[in-house]
Amino acid sequence: MAERFVEICRASWRREPAVWLITALVALVHFALAGRYDIFRNELYFIVCGRRPDWGYVDQPPLIPLLAAATQLFGTNVWLLRVPAALSAVLLVPLTAAITRALGGSTTGAWVAGLAASLSPMLVALSTVLTTETLEPLCWTGLTYLVLRAVRSGEGRYLYAAAIVAGLGMQAKYGMAIWLLALAAGLLATPARALYRHRDCWRAALLALVIGAPSLVWQQLHGWPFFEVIRPAVGGTNFTGTPIRFLIRQAFEQNIVLAPLWIAGLVAPFRGPRLKHARFIAMAYAVAAAIVIGAHGKNYYLAAAYPSLFAVGAVGLQSLGRGLRTAWLALAGLAAAVAAPVVLPILDPPVLARYLAATHLAPPPEEAAAIGAPLTQLFSDQLGWRTLEAQVAAVYRALPDDERAHTALVAVDYGEAAALDVYGAADGLPPALSGQNQYFLWGVRGFDGDAMILVNGDPDRLARLCRSTEIAGQIGAPYVMPYENDRPIILCRGLRRPLAEVWPAFRRYR
């Protein structure tokens, strides 16, 4: 088997050396930069969730938390944490090229598609840190490839493989359901609907449901908290703007120079029989875009659909002259290089701040929480967490021994709480409490509220809850998000009612 694998790799290298050179370059960049900044807010939270394994969590399925925790089994290591994200960027290149080849595209078309997947600023950003979005481009593109192979060959094995990808994708992020619905609609709206008559189609659908079901069952048993988390966004709190504005931002965030490629992926399947098998992909994009826009989704919610369109468009445009193609892709590479410091941790924070000020390339905020980021939210949320833990630990250690033994640490949000949990063990800090998302379900962990250190709390509100309060310190560091900077650390003594009794008032799902 090993010899067979080696032979396949050699054959692939001989057939498409450019694809594998691009893949190697992507690997070099991502693995070299993986540990440049510190752990991202959500990554800290995922590590803590993964260390308390469950079938699901308030705001996400279990796969990414379990993966994050697994990378930290031997101690805190930023580089190891980012390995799955780097691998997702690396594998996306040959997978995108494979769709082009499955559509009958040339070797040139294959490497153009793979290159496009590596030059999209948004796709690069999604693979910079390990979040629930990180595996989406890989899962959506992999599902597209397998369904395409099933459509073209009629072989059931591709349907079962697609089911596994779909089920695992649902265990990584519920956004997988958007592409599943979109592909289903795309198939139904085109001649590819014949796939629904395949004897293995519905068995494969059942397999996908079985793989994805545990997290959905967990959500049902807990009252579907995920819908409460996303309700504000669906209600219009995300700054998506009009559909036209949304699509314009999509073009820029996917690399504006590459826009003709994915637009060709939408149009070319309907301009002749050559790409008729790709019509369901173009229709799926239209449906997915309608869902995301209708739900006021953030721009990156649709990012995972573009590699498939790059692959289709590469077939449609592969007849471009060599000179024109070279100039076009060189310009796309230049645009990607200019945007690279905005999505990759290339520059140190002070240099990045100056670069953003000079170029005006900082992305506009997509939600209220992103307003005022000194760098970008992606980078600002990777800074200051160890400092925050040290600042809270100093307040905790300053307490008398008898008081410290029953003092709870309570944080406003899951990022602060997770930073205390991940970095605080070395300082002997107790488990952190928070009312946000999964932390709320973990409850008060035996603390009665007689003494609490509240991180980033509201002094006026706490004065009504506690018999005495004092500001014992503050959190903050350069370039962190504004709501994590110059904020108080409050010591509360004598909660007027037991903590377990008032805990429901701390709940914040968002």
UniProtKB/TrEMBL annotation:
Keywords per UniProt: Cell membrane, Glycosyltransferase, Membrane, Transferase, Transmembrane, Transmembrane helix
Cell compartment(s), UniProt: Cell membrane
An example molecular function term from Gene Ontology annotations: pentosyltransferase activity
Any single GO BP term: lipopolysaccharide biosynthetic process
Membrane topology term: Multi-pass membrane protein
Transmembrane regions: 79-99, 111-130, 158-189, 277-295, 301-320, 327-347
Matches recorded under InterPro entries: LipidA_mod_glycosyltrf_83 (IPR050297), RgtA/B/C-like (IPR038731)
Gene Ontology CC, one term: plasma membrane
Alphabetized Pfam families for the sequence: PMT_2 (PF13231)
Major subcellular site: membrane
Glycosyltransferase RgtA/B/C/D-like domain span: 59-218
Alphabetical list of PANTHER family matching this protein: MANNOSYLTRANSFERASE YKCB-RELATED, MEMBRANE PROTEIN
Name of this protein: Glycosyltransferase RgtA/B/C/D-like domain-containing protein
